[in-house]
Specification:
This protein is mostly helical. It has one domain. The chain is about 85% helix and about 0% strand. It is built from two helices and no strands. The longest helix is centred in the N-terminal third of the chain and has 24 residues. The chain is elongated, with a radius of gyration of 13 Å. The two termini are about 15 Å apart.
């Protein structure tokens, strides 16, 4: 179960990055939303790394 949760956090981080790149190319996202989505991805990746170290 712990590996599954870790995988979910990594997938969320990757999905946020892909979403930002895609939406920026299509000009469908503003700078505030871009920062918010990248922040969510960064938090998910950080949680994944902290769980991995334990």
């Amino acid at each position: 179960m712990n590996k599954t949760i870790n995988l979910i956090f990594r997938c969320v981080a990757l999905a946020m990055g892909v979403a930002v790149v895609t939406l920026r190319i299509l000009n469908k996202i503003d700078n505030d939303t871009t920062a918010l989505l990248l922040g969510i991805g960064l938090v998910a990746m950080s949680i994944s790394q902290f769980k991995k170290e334990k």
